[in-house]
Amino acid sequence: MSNNLLAGKVGIISGALDEKSIAWKVAQRAHAQGARFVLTNAPIAMRMGEIKKLSAECDAPIIPADATSVEELEALFSGAQEHLGGKLDFVLHSIGMSPNVRKKKDYGNLDYKFFQQTIDVSAMSFHKMMHVAEKQDALNEWASIVALSYIAAQRVFPDYTDMSQAKAMLESIARNYGHRLGVQKKVRVNTISQSPTKTTAGTGVGGFDAFFDYADKMSPLGNAPAEACADYCISLFSDLTRYVTMQNLLHDGGFSSMGISEHVVEALTKMAETQQA
Q1: What value does the mean pLDDT take over residues 240-257?
Q2: What is the pTM of this model?
Q3: What element of type H or E holds 55?
Q4: What class of enzyme is it (predicted)?
Q5: C-beta atoms surrounding 67 within 10 Å
Q6: Hey, which bits of 56-187 come out as E strands?
Q7: pLDDT, tens digit (0-9, with 9 covering 90-100), for 183-210
């Protein structure tokens, strides 16, 4: 259902790889709510994914950009403004990658060159995006910038390794740039800490299926699906959240407030009984 929450608004959506991607769902929801936007992803990710299909569905041009490159981001923001006919109202940063996670290196045996790549791609790219947007004066007043995070920024999830540091840095950048852009142009900057989600990237983390089930049992509402996260992004892009900024917003079905749940107690009890039998 469309309420035209984003009618007349224009922006950039990064990170849509395939139909499992949260960014993909955000693009579909934004289009349905009346927004126009440019899609972007790294050239290598575009070769792996299906972004052209999304581009046709949403009538959204694609401007490839490596988010670690200031020069390519400059071309992205200037190209987006040229195509959309003016300054931007929203930007989605849905970018994350860890070579250490992909290669299943545990936390005590990280490759530090990989670690630097993780930080650059997953966190510093967010700073670079806003740096370019600021220098180009590419944002309208009350624009909204959203990045996707995860609770591993605050808590230990061993298989998430160096992505935990990247997400912590991402959230810190949101607070600091949120202050800066808020003072300058009343631009809002927030992160969303999403439930474990069965995206292509998410399922690449070791033990994902077991943790997905655990989080679902821990959360009073269950894990928030990608579609619901997309709806939350749309609300943050809209004028209904004009005074929400510099926040890490938990979108996890209540997981972050739980100590233990009845479902987990039952599962542990059954496991203990089985071991004793």
Answers
A1: 97
A2: 0.94
A3: helix 51-58
A4: oxidoreductase
A5: 24
A6: 88-93, 139-149
A7: 999 999 999 999 999 876 666 666 778 8
